[in-house]
Amino acid sequence: MREKKGLLFFTLFFWLFMIFFTLFSNNLHNCMLTKAEIYYPKMRMFYLKDGTDNEVRQKCYAIPAWMEDCDLFIAQTEEKNGQERIFARNIQVKLGEKEGLFCPIISNDYFGEPLILRSENVLSDGEEIYVKNWR
Amino acid sequence: MKKYLLKFLFLMSALLFILPILSTIGMSFWQEKLSLQPWIDLLLDTPVFYKMFWNSMFYASVITILELCVATPCAFGLVTSKIRGKKIIFMIYLILMMMPLQVTLLPNYIGLREMGLLNTRAGIIFPMIFSAFGIVVLHQYMLNLDEAQIEAARLETDSVIKILMYVVAPQMKACIIATSVFLFAECFNMLEQPMLFLKEERLQNLTVFMMNASGYEGNVLFPASVIFLIPVSILYLYFNDALEKGIKL
User: Fold this and answer.
1) Backbone dihedral angles phi then psi of residue B236, each to the nearest 5 degrees
2) How far is residue A83 CA from its own chain's centroid?
3) Is B36 on the interface with A (CB under 8 A)?
């Protein structure tokens, strides 16, 4: 009888454990990730140097000027363990001279991916993140 | 001295049998050093595991219940009816039970394809309900039933279902429980049918997850194996008395 009682207790514990993790594993997983806020860069008109002393007016993606000296990370979705997740990727882009509050991205290999504006912790390349304002 | 040596040898051989289970449990807490990381990887980082676990539970439970509903009247009919050739029918069931699963997979696949049941839950459940195992086991047990009681019940009612429920089932409680446990274990462990009949990951069961475990990030195989062991073990432990009685055919 005592054995069966122990078994009953274990069975109850096992099912509660499985139900709890089925319902809340995603939330727990998100709690463990670095939280980040992203920014979708918009295109603006900038005056850019064309290699000579002349300046041309051109439309480029703009990032806030205060990000000029920071490591730039973009947020990218990838599939991991059967689920689409968001990862931070470090990018090296060429920036133009700042104009007012914005700075132009003049590299040709940037296509408007969402930039990570701020994060809870220091990010590393390829780290999974939790983005609150993900579209 | 000789007695102790024998005891020690038996203990060692018993340990050999549970060694794979112990090593599975041990390895689930090991990632280069003692760690909970494999469990964290599985429980928090692999949500698809839960889908497959509940799919396994769903398939095993539904198939067990439905197969019992089909097999019990079928076995009762085979035992009590006075038709000619019922021994031959039973022999066919026996042969079907002995056949390797792989032999019946292709006809099942073609049948399911014709009925449009491929890649559906019904495609897994439907062929399994009519497996011969339940009928053969229940039939053998029913041969020892008290015929006088059944005849007496027949005088009271014409309903075969009532006779089955109130006269036959109570006498066969142990056998029905034993058959249910074996059916549940068989369905919980099935691998070939979901692999062949299902394409979508959301419909697959835990055995398929275990087979593909190397494709998931993290060391998820061992903790998944530990969880995989638990439901069937609980059933065996709960019903071990009924299993012992039920197996004595």
Assistant:
1) -60, -45
2) 16
3) no
Q: How far apart are CA B142 and CA B81, in angstroms?
A: 12
In chain A, % of residues over pLDDT 70: 97
Q: Are A113 and A74 in contact, with CB atoms under 8 Å apart? A: yes
Strand residues in chain B grouped as ranges (E)? 30-31, 33-34
A105 and A76 belong to one structural domain? yes
**Cβ <8 Å between B230 and A14:** yes
Residue of B nearest to A30 (CA): B44
Touching check for A121 and chain B: CB below 8 Å?
Answer: no
Domain containing A42: what range? 35-131
- Give per-residue pLDDT as tens, A33-86: 999 999 899 999 988 877 677 788 889 999 999 988 889 999 999 999 888 999
This prediction has a pTM of 0.88
CATH code for the structural domain at B46-248: 1.10.3720.10
ipTM field = 0.88
| Statement to judge: residues A48 and A95 lie in one domain | yes
pLDDT for residue B249 is more than 60: no
What is d(CA B20, CA A117) in angstroms, rounded to the nearest whole number?
50
Same domain, A5 and A65: no
* CA max distance for chain A: 93
Residue A49 and residue A77 in one domain:
yes
pLDDT per residue as tens digits for the range B155-177: 988 898 999 999 999 999 999 99
**Total domain count, chain A:** 2
Distance from CA of B88 to the nearest CA of A (A): 44
Q: How many whole angstroms from its chain centre is CA A123?
A: 9
Interface of B with A in 201-230 (CB under 8 A): 201, 216-218, 227, 230
- Residues in A closer than 8 angstroms to B218, CB to CB, are 81
Same domain? For A95 and A56 the reply is yes
Pairing of strands A129-131, A43-49: unpaired
Q: B96-109 pLDDT, tens per residue?
A: 999 998 899 999 99
Is the CB of A7 less than 8 angstroms away from the CB of B238? yes
SS3 B43: helix
Q: Are residues A98 and A125 in the same domain?
A: yes
Contact B113, B196 (CB under 8 A): no
Q: Are residues A53 and A108 in the same domain?
A: yes
Q: Which of residues 56-95 of A touch B (CB under 8 A)?
A: 80-83
